[in-house]
Task: structure prediction
Amino acid sequence: MAFQTLKARLKPVCHRTLRRQVTAYIPYTKRLPLVEEFTPEESEDRLYHLVSEYLQQDNLQALPASQRSLDDAGAAQATGFIDLRHCRR
Result:
């Protein structure tokens, strides 16, 4: 409920703009992805699991339930978390 209230209060001043909506007047550089193999260390894997467990708490108010999984690409993008176990750098 608090999330919806905050969202409603911010709506008049915050507007999400997509890249394709502003390309006419904002020049973007072309993105070139670089892919390399990456194997997380044991400490990084442990951190991943600790954050995952935290996000699964029933009483967590920081994020809506739909954004509490690091394994889901959409949720990772929404929360800013990335599943390091499957990343390549």
Notes: Confidence is low (pLDDT under 50) at residues 74-79. Residues 2-27+34-86 form one domain. Helices lie at 2-10, 19-22, 42-55, 73-79.
